[in-house]
């Protein structure tokens, strides 16, 4: 895969250089004060090849939508879900892999999956009350002792080989994340009764196994979960942070650690636990685990009146129901017959959008990925929802780290946009 990646991606180095030198003055967009004041939305300023988000059709990975990926990517069992190893290959190389390529990545990651003892020691040094994302990001940063990229840089390696060392770091890091995540899970919720990896299992299957959820059903869900959360183009907080920190030539352990801390925020990845928390809060307040649509509507209104957001709804780019939500709903419709939490999530899908739509200022009233994921995990017995963002993080690493290898191959520079005092914008607005 490394050779195939280089063969394909190195062709783009010339293209990048040509754009940089021959077309540097070409204007591609105007920036408005509105864009600056609303989080730089829609300002084209990043290069990300792994995936692209369209406001009206959702995410595509190298041109393939989620339904297409669920059909085309290799899987273990014809009726099952695709293996995330295949998605990683697609993001990196740009082609749908063969079954053999995917098994090779599984084997490669399995051989690279040993986590150094000091990383577990760092986790164990924290109180169990430390949030799982605090433990997860600290463990990732602690693993920077292993960085071959950092060693190579310090020994003076030529910059044209950076990508090669980055590639190895990234493969090691991805291989070890399931072990770290499962360790935190078993530490926090199962009294430190840890489970060793099974080298015969695939990457996502092994994560479910090490968490102590060994059924085929959970492994199937975990594969779907790891595929749909892997990437969402370059501008979201976790992807952009990883890219930005990497642009200073920080090692990928630092870059991903920083990205994960961004993912931990409630407007981003924390929303997946917030949704479940909010649903239990509403069931508790209403006094029923099967609230009616009227009761749900009242509670949504109450949430808005309290100046809170309705978690799992809205998006910075999307203007339709998130296809990642739809993929999970289809999964639930296929495999789950009656579950009160899932029923409530489905009822909220009917109730919430018209209410948010009527507020006026909310750009997108439709559900995002986080509106469904927690209910599925909960149904299959992964009930510790304060852990859910870690699962999002394990998956998100696939996309942001594939991009980081490409960043170093293209030789992207340190990122450094300009900032001005508020007065400067005020002066611009009044034409001064
Ligand atoms: N509930 C209530 N209000 C909402 C809302 C929601 N679900 N979504 C947006 N709004 C509000 C915003 O808070 C903002 O209010 P303000 O003007 O008073 O500050 C206003 O509507 C305009 O915001 P926007 O342009 O529609 O959205 P945005 O691009 O600024 O933010 C997002 C996008 C996702 C942060 C926002 O929709 C939100 O907070 N959603 C709930 C949290 C959530 O589900 N996050 C997960 C997103 C997916 C992910 O990254 N995992």
How are the SSEs ordered, and which strands pair?
Layout: H1 2-9, H2 11-22, H3 33-37, E1 51-54, E2 58-61, E3 64-65, H4 66-72, H5 84-93, H6 99-111, H7 117-124, H8 132-142, H9 148-154, H10 162-189, H11 203-211, H12 216-228, H13 237-247, H14 252-263, H15 271-286, H16 293-305, H17 323-335, H18 340-359, H19 370-379, H20 388-410, H21 422-429
Antiparallel strand pairs: 1-2, 2-3
Helix pairs in contact: 5-20, 6-10, 7-8, 7-10, 8-10, 8-14, 9-10, 10-11, 10-20, 11-12, 12-17, 12-20, 13-14, 13-20, 14-20, 15-19, 16-18, 17-19
The protein binds amidocarboxymethyldethia coenzyme *A.
Tell me about this structure.
It comes from Gaoshiqia sediminis. There is one protein chain. The chain is an all-alpha fold and 432 residues long. The protein has a single domain (1-30, 46-416), classed as Citrate Synthase, domain 1 (Orthogonal Bundle). Helix content is 59%, strand content 2%. It is built from 21 helices and 3 strands. Strand 2 (58-61) and strand 3 (64-65) form a beta hairpin. Helix 5 runs parallel beside helix 20 and helix 8 packs antiparallel against helix 10. The mean pLDDT is 97. It binds amidocarboxymethyldethia coenzyme *A (AMX). Residues 236, 267-269, 271, 304, 309-316, 356, 361-364, 368-370 line the site of amidocarboxymethyldethia coenzyme *A.
């Amino acid at each position: 895969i490394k050779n195939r990646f280089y063969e394909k991606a190195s062709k783009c180095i010339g293209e990048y250089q040509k754009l940089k030198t021959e077309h540097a003055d070409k204007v591609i967009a105007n920036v408005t004060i509105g864009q600056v004041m609303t989080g730089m939305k829609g300002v084209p300023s990043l290069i990300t090849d792994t995936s692209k988000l369209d406001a009206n059709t959702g995410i595509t990975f190298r041109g393939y939508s989620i339904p297409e990926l669920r059909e085309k990517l290799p899987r273990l069992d014809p009726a099952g879900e695709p293996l995330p190893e295949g998605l990683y290959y697609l993001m990196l190389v740009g082609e749908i892999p063969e079954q053999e390529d995917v098994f090779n990545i599984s084997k490669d990651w399995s051989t690279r999956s040993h986590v150094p003892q000091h990383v577990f020691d760092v986790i164990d040094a924290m109180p169990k009350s430390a949030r799982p994302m605090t433990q997860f990001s600290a463990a990732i940063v602690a693993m920077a002792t292993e960085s071959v990229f950092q060693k190579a840089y310090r020994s003076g390696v030529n910059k044209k080989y950076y990508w090669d060392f980055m590639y190895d770091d990234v493969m090691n890091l991805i291989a070890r994340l399931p072990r770290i995540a499962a360790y935190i899970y078993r530490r926090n919720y199962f009294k430190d009764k840890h489970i060793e990896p099974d080298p015969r299992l695939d990457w996502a299957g092994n994560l479910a196994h090490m968490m102590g959820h060994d059924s085929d059903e959970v492994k199937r869900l975990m594969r779907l979960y790891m595929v749909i959360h892997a990437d969402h183009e370059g501008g979201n907080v976790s992807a952009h942070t990883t890219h930005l920190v990497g642009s200073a030539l920080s090692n990928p352990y630092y870059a991903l650690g920083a990205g994960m801390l961004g993912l931990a925020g409630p407007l981003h990845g924390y929303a997946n636990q917030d949704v479940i928390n909010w649903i239990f809060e509403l069931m508790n307040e209403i006094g029923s685990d099967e609230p009616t649509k009227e009761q749900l509507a009242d509670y949504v209104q109450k949430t808005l009146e309290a100046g809170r957001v309705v978690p799992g709804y809205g998006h910075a780019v999307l203007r339709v129901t998130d296809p990642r939500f739809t993929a999970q709903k289809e999964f639930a419709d296929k495999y789950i017959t009656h579950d009160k939490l899932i029923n409530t999530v489905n009822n909220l899908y009917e109730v919430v959008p018209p209410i948010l739509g009527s507020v006026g200022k909310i750009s997108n009233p439709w559900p995002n990925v986080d509106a469904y994921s927690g209910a599925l995990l909960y149904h299959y017995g992964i009930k510790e929802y304060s852990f859910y963002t870690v699962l999002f993080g394990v998956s998100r690493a696939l996309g942001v780290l594939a991009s980081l290898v490409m960043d170093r191959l293209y030789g992207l520079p340190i990122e450094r946009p300009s900032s001005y005092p508020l007065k400067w914008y005020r002066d611009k607005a009044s034409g001064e």
